[in-house]
Amino acid sequence: MFVGRPFGVPVYVSPSWFLVAVLVTVMFEGQANDVIDRPASYAVAFAYALLLYGSVFVHELSHAVTARVLGLPVRSVTLHILGGETSIEREAPTPGREFLIAFAGPLVNLVLAGLGLFAHAVLTLPDVALLLLEALTFANLLVGVFNLLPGLPLDGGRLVRAAVWKATGRSRSGAIVAGWIGRGVAIACLITGAFLATYRTDGESGGGGGFGWLALLWSALVASFIWVGATQAIRAERVRDRIPLLSARRLARRATLVTADVPLAEAIRRAHEDHAGALVIVDHDGVPRGLVSEKAVTATPPHRRPWVSAGDLSRGLDEARTLPADITGEALVTALRRAPSSEYLLVEPDGRVYGVLAVSDVDRAFTGV
Q: Which of 359, 336, 356, 358 is nearest to 346 (CA)?
């Protein structure tokens, strides 16, 4: 759900956030009821839920604003069940910028926690306001410290990545190290949750009197989030190693050129004769006008193909979907990101059709499958 565009950054709230808001309200209502009677205690508890996610929002917005100041485009900020996420279009080009963007979020939370402690010391507040101030101070301290844990995908992991990157000159090394540390942090979170689930407030181990199953459930969710994020970071670096090896010419499918009025069955027959894996629609002068969608061909039953023209299953070409056959590496990846599509026409320098590049083939080259 779109909620606004502060500082030019689109902000969205996932439906899962409302589930967390209800959960936080129920959990905090007991404390609120100590200072105010029901049903007003539920309103106070819900106010805390809003303030808690306000802290998360400020955290993510700090990342976004810092990234924009440093020249990196920001797609969006999204609040969800496990906190929030800032989507930045590309990675920081230097370890210094990576450090600044990563540290901006926790820094703001720690500053807010410090301001909360200062306000608590110098202000005399009503019981309800004091409770919310204490809870909000703790929440900012928790968000700030938790995000500084040294493992991806947390901000602390990005700080580790920046430090290793600076020391080694290789961003890949930083990401791999921070990813493996992140896996360790995930395991530590799960162990901590298991301990809290069986810890008794009287200091003895065993069931009852402790934080219970909720601590274990929440730690399991957090641990899975960190583990998956760390694993994805490690995998992404391995995939990135393959980028320089990508070659559109090597991945291209041979193409058969047909006019739009040719029946699909006949076009497929010609492609089989040519040992081609793609169909290009051309006009009567041989100028490419469109690409026949592989998915559309597959979805068309064989008995219908004689009665459907190839042009009916094609998508018109534009400059962004026409690439030079010699494009490789990062330039190829950038071109695919700039104009997402399932197929691209590859042309020689003199304008002749070389073939068709299917994104599915690029994906297989990335994954090594």
A: 356
* Residue 60 annotated as catalytic: yes
Quick: pLDDT tens for 174-223: 999 999 999 999 999 999 888 877 765 555 544 444 456 767 787 888 89
Q: How far apart are CA 244 and CA 329, in angstroms?
A: 4
Please return the burial class of 346, using the count of CB atoms within 10 Å of its CB with bins 0-12, 13-18 and 19+. buried
* Active-site entry in 29, 60, 294, 343: 60
Where b means 16+ CB within 10 Å and e means fewer, 92-110 reads beebebbbbbbbbbbbbbb
pLDDT per residue over 331-352, tens digit each? Answer: 998 899 888 999 999 999 999 9
Give the single-character DSSP code of 4: E
80 annotated as a binding-site residue = no
pTM > 0.85? no
CA contacts within 13 A on the Cβ side of 61:
17
Q: Is 155 annotated as a binding residue?
A: yes
Task: For residue 284, say whether it is annotated as part of any ligand binding site.
Answer: no
Rounded to whole angstroms, the Cα distance separating 293 from 343 reads: 7
CA–CA distance, 183 with 303 (Å, rounded to integer): 53
